[in-house]
Amino acid sequence: MDNRSSVEIFTEWDIVAARQLGRNEAKNSGFGTVDQARITTAISELARNIYLYAGKGKIEIDRLSTDGMKGMTIIASDEGPGIPDLRKVMEDGFSTSGGLGAGMPGVKRLMDDFKVESEVGKGTIITATKWLR
Amino acid sequence: MNSKMRTVVNEHMDAIIEKWIELMKEEKGERFFHFMPQHLVEKTSREFTALMTSNINEGESALNDERLDDFTEKVIRFGWSIKFVNKAIDNFASVVFEMLEDQEVITEQNLRIFMGVFTGWINPLRESIIEAYAVKWEQTDTLQKVALQELSASLIPVVDKVSIMPLVGTIDTERAKLIMENLLEGVVQQRAEVVLLDITGVPVVDTMVAHHIIQAADAVRLVGAKCMLVGIRPEIAQTIVALGINLSDFTTTSTLRRGMQEALSLTNREIVEVE
Fold it and tell me: CA–CA separation, B142 vs A26, rounded Å?
């Protein structure tokens, strides 16, 4: 698929690279400034989670266009420890690292579609989509 | 064997350079050989070839460090990419090889030996040039990091009791720490009562950035001052709300100007026009 671009996350600066890519892609797809900020922030959260909890992983960005609908999908994947309790991480204020605990539920609210697949010891894949309207 | 090669290479240097420039001009996307003044191309090419042949002329491992540094610096300034330099080395090697074949220095019988000679000649060169490049990059990288550090987070006393910290650019863990330190130190030193944190220049406010700001504000409160968050752009306001970050503990305004007015009224002052 040539509508896909990706950034590997190893260091804190890769987070910046990932969201830069996301911002550019969002701009090119025709998203307005508010949605650009939403997408960029969502990427920032997901990339930071990879960096904090899995150590390394990948952020992929797909440009979608199906049935006249256009949009953007962020896929954050890692082979880290996985998420033991999915319901808990989606609660506001839950954090294992002393943070605000707003990241995961925040991303869900920032984007239109949101899906988490995680297996303990295997890794996590988070897919989040924003549609252009 | 090597001495014969040396003599032949030196004799045919001009032809080699010419052919090499020809080859390099064919490289895709290369602008140097097309747009630079002829004499500059000529000079740089001569330097390059001199560098390339320096270790056959002066014997193995006699690669002159200073000359190598000079050359690398120059090439980087011209904007040659490492890929291009690598290609230049390849092309040069193959031009020399062809020429030696034409001159019948290299024949079917001694081909194997010459392969060895070539490897022993080209590889150390390639390694040192790449090494020099890498060192150069690392230096630039460190310099820029230092420059960024210096730009980071200074607390500016604007009027009595009011100080401003303008934040510009990405906030990472290291900068967040610096912001906290400068903020607290500055507040005490400048005897500030109100501190304005201006985030107009921060491109993304995610939970981590927000967390750091909240912590900084809390710490400022502990040393007896009040922290205000100013310069919240509309799109940032929306993402903060979507993330569900609670900033209700401190005053926030959209622009620095409104923040300044607020800060003055908090310290029982206002700006009046002089008649």
Answer: 31
